[in-house]
Amino acid sequence: MCTANSLDTIPAPLLDRMEVLEVSGYITEEKAAIASRYLAPQAKEGAGLKNADVELGEDAVAALIRYYCRESGVRRLKQQIEKVRARSLSLCTHARR
User: Fold this and answer.
1) C-alpha angle 5/8/14, rounded to 5°?
2) By the 8 A CB rule, do 69 and 76 touch?
3) Quick one: which of 33, 39, 60, 92 is 20 to 30 A from 66 by CA?
């Protein structure tokens, strides 16, 4: 048993001997809903911005999904949102000085 995100990188002779099961991932709208409901609030709290007036807009989430998180799951999306929140904390801290 093995897993792959793309069949293009598997050598043809090996691919001929494998049984391929494709499992669909989240569609863009599902990823956006997961990001808005769960990932963004968790990242905001984790970065210490719980009470800060900092929001991650729908356009920003859509851009993250489209340009930075093309895999079928949401692990990379979570990482990218956490990076954005960490940068927000850095900017908020710098602005207070």
Assistant:
1) 100
2) yes
3) 92
Which DSSP letter does residue 20 get?
P
Which single residue is written with the structure tokens 């409901």? Answer: 37
In the chain, which residues have pLDDT < 70? 92-97
Measure the CA–CA gap between 53 and 16, rounded to whole angstroms: 55
Q: Is 94 within 8 Å of 68 (Cβ atoms)?
A: no
Q: What is the pLDDT of residues 47-69, one digit of tens each?
A: 877 777 778 889 999 999 999 88
Question: By the 8 A CB rule, do 95 and 53 touch?
Answer: no
Q: Phi-psi category of 48—alpha, beta or left, where left has phi over 0 and alpha has psi -120 to 50?
A: left
